[in-house]
């Protein structure tokens, strides 16, 4: 399954962001990039957050983390690598 970035509508900006932590709670970081309708870089950031507590409303993500559901395709391979 190919994942492709989709540009925002005319006169809009798109912010893509992601975060990570080592454990819950644990040290975390966050980053993001903002682009215009042509894909041109407007701004980008990345920084360490210190100790974080992770909370999500994504049922799939919770199931993957708690091993009650298996992630598909590449997500499963990445998950297996990260878990050792």
TrEMBL record:
Residues 14-34 are annotated as: Disordered. This is RNase H type-1 domain-containing protein.
């Amino acid at each position: 399954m190919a994942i492709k970035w989709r540009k925002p509508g005319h006169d809009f900006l798109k912010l893509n962001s992601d975060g990570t932590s080592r454990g819950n709670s644990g040290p975390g970081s966050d980053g993001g990039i903002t682009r215009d309708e042509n894909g041109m870089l407007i701004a980008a950031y990345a920084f360490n957050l210190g100790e974080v507590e992770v909370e999500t409303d994504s049922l799939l993500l919770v199931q993957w983390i708690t091993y009650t559901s298996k992630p598909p395709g590449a997500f499963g391979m990445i998950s297996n690598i990260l878990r050792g």
